[in-house]
Design brief:
The protein is of the alpha/beta class. The protein has 2 domains: 11-20 and 267-389, Aspartate Aminotransferase, domain 1 (Alpha-Beta Complex); 23-261, Aspartate Aminotransferase, domain 2. It contains 12 helices and 12 strands. The strands form 3 sheets. The chain has a 7-stranded mixed beta sheet, with helices on both faces. It has a 3-stranded antiparallel beta sheet with strand order 9-10-12. It has a two-stranded parallel ribbon with strand order 1-11.
């Protein structure tokens, strides 16, 4: 169901934080809250009709990323998928070798970075590879960071703040050359750009339903056949023994339907949303001085714009726009409220004082040309007023 159009103007430009549920997803999920309530592990028909629903959803998710259905493991979302991938792969490797080294980047989502830092406290060695000015991970430094005991390499597909797409195929080749398990956080890529696990050459890949018009609290981890992985907590034998616990049937059904519809709509929506994003950036640059589009020279997912506005704080812009009926972000939703400059922008080489002016506009399938025009009409007024009040000159 799309947002209510009858309320006072409210324009949602924060689709990287979350998305609404598509009507097709809601309609398919509803019966699984009441009529079809069975436990999929039960042998009677209440259970088996839900086992069939899980199998169907698994096939749709697999189709979205060009995988086999048996390679898809359902989780509670992107964060759990990242944890299972990194911790599970490392645990499996430790059983057969002394490998104790992880390679990741400085611009990963906190779900990866905090997992790696936690593993460091447990005695792992972690190398954090920097990116260049465009927000692209430095391949030369990543190769240099790899060692004989590298067990896991984890690099995201698309950055949650800038939308910059990473050179996954090249990183995959480097990981394979060292015998490391390669994990990709594709939470901000799946459903927005084509994702083909074979073409990318990944061993493990995380996705989350609520980033492409599915429900919150459900995601998946792709596990290439033959990849050594162990569960990170114990219980039942669900999901091939990798994710114990009674399945979230409504969520799984919703993820499957979101994957199905997103794959159908992907070519059309990529082109349309990319056009909107480019129009928004051109208009912003033409109307307001002192703006930099972070990662503009690199490949990006079509819906994301990270703009740095000089002499004003991004949080102030975000709050002012909210008062005027626009939802944007001053960074990642998982990091907002930190009152610090974006660690992603500073990793790209922006001075922390400049990076304080970062905002993120992320578009979705409900957005229109008229909404972009409304943003562009409002943007100069917001920036001008805040610059008058700002101590940053």
């Amino acid at each position: 169901m799309a947002p209510d159009k009858n309320r006072q103007r409210r324009i949602y430009f924060d689709h990287n934080a979350t998305t609404y549920l598509r009507q097709e997803v809601v309609d398919l999920m509803l019966p699984y809250f009441r009529e079809r309530f069975g436990n999929a592990s039960s042998l009677h028909f209440f259970g088996q009709e839900n086992r069939d629903a899980i199998d169907s959803a698994r096939a749709h998710v697999a189709s979205l990323i060009n995988a086999e259905p048996e390679e898809v493991i359902f989780t509670s979302g992107g964060t759990e998928s990242d944890n299972l991938a990194i911790r599970g792969a490392l645990r499996a490797r430790r059983r057969i070798s002394p490998a104790n080294h992880i390679v990741t980047s400085l611009i990963e989502h906190p779900a990866v970075l905090k997992t790696c830092r936690d593993l460091e406290e447990e005695g792992c060695r972690v190398s954090y590879v920097p990116c260049d000015r465009n927000g692209v991970v430095r391949l030369d430094l990543l190769e240099e960071a790899m060692a004989s005991d590298t067990a896991v390499v984890s690099v995201m597909l698309a950055n949650n703040e800038t939308g910059v797409i990473q050179p996954i195929r090249e990183i995959s080749a480097l990981a394979r050359s060292r015998g490391a398990t390669f994990h990709v956080d594709a939470v901000q890529g799946a459903g927005k750009i084509p994702v083909d696990v074979d073409d990318l050459g990944v061993d493990l890949l995380s996705i989350s339903a609520h980033k492409f018009y599915g429900p919150k609290g459900i995601g998946a981890l792709y596990v290439r056949r033959g990849t050594a992985l162990e569960p990170v907590y114990t219980g039942g034998s669900h999901e091939c023994g990798l994710r114990p616990g009674t399945e979230n049937i409504p969520g799984i059904v919703g993820l499957g339907e979101a994957a199905r519809v997103s794959k159908e709509d992907l070519p059309r929506e990529m082109e349309r949303i990319g056009r909107l994003r480019d129009r928004l950036e051109r208009g912003a640059l033409a109307r307001v001085d002192g703006i930099v589009v972070a990662g503009a020279s690199a490949p990006r997912v079509p819906n994301t714009s990270s703009m740095i506005v000089a002499r004003v704080e991004g949080e102030a812009i975000t709050l002012r726009f909210s008062m005027l009926g626009f939802a944007i972000s001053s960074g990642s939703a998982c990091s907002s409220g930190a009152n610090e400059p974006s660690y992603i922008l500073t990793a790209m080489g922006f001075d922390p004082g400049i990076a304080q002016g970062g905002i993120r506009v992320s578009l979705g399938i409900v957005n229109t040309d008229e909404e972009v025009d409304a943003f562009l009409e409002t943007f100069p007024q917001v920036v001008s007023r805040l610059r008058e009040l700002s101590p940053l000159k």
